[in-house]
Amino acid sequence: MAFLQLKSVGQTYFSKQTATTALEDITLSVSEGEFVSFLGPSGCGKSTLLSIISGLIQPTNGSVSLKNQSITKPHPKIGYMLQQDYLFPWKTIKDNILVGLKLQGCLNDERTAYTLSLMSEIGLYDTLDKYPNELSGGMRQRVALVRTLATNPQILLLDEPFSALDYQTKLKLEDLVSNTLREHGKTAILVTHDIGEAIAMSDRIVLFSTKPGRIFRTFPVTSHLRKRLPFEARQHPDYSVMFQQIWEELEQIEQNDTE
Q1: All domains of the chain in start order, with CATH
Q2: What integer is the mean pLDDT of 161-167?
Q3: What is the C-alpha to C-alpha distance for residues 207 and 250, in angstroms, rounded to an integer?
C-alpha cells in the first residue's frame, strides 16, 4: 500500500464563459520516507497539485489518500511550508514555533520540549525571545521549518521554500532541510523551478508538461547522489549528467508548447 496515493487527479477552473483545465490524469504514488520533487515550466500546475494534496483544494476529478485515508480537507499530519515564512511579526520566535500546536490543541510539555530541541538542532535556540524582524531571511525560513515540524506531520509539502533567498543561504538551507528531514524520517514533496535543487535534494523527480499539467516523465535520482547532502551532490559527476538530461526534456516541453 502506498503511503501517499494520487489517482487520476484533475483540476478544471470554470468561469461563465470558459473552462480551463490546469491538471489532467495525475496518478502518482509516494513511499514513506521518500523525497519527491515536482519540476516543470510555469503554469504546469505544480503548486495547484500541492494544494490538492494538502486538502486546501478539492480536485475536480480523482482522489488523494494518505495511508489509505482520503484527503478532503486540511489534515493535521500534512505540513505545508511556503516561499514566505509567514511568521507573526508581533509574536516572539518561541510563540511563533508553538502556534501550530496551540491551534491543534496539542501544546503540552512534551511537544514544547520537542520543538525547542528542533531549534537547538538548527542552531537558533538563542533567538527564542527575539522577534521575526530581528532575524535574516534564512533564519526566518529555518524558524518556519521548525514550526512546520513541531506538529510532527507525516508528510511535508514544500512550495519553493528557498526561492526568495540569496544563493549562498539557499545552498546552506538545502543541506539543513535535507539533513533534518532525513534524521526525522519525514516524507516530503518539493515544488521547484530549480533543476539543480531538485536533483540535489530528491530521491525522485517528477517532470510536468503544461496546457494542461500532466506527468511527462519521472527521473529516479542515483544512489550516489541520494546518499550525499545537497551541496556535496552538486559536485558529483552524476549531477551534471542528470542536469543535462532534465534540461533537454524541459526544452522539448517548451518546444511542444510553442508549436
Answers
A1: 1-76+191-259 (3.40.50.300)
A2: 86
A3: 8
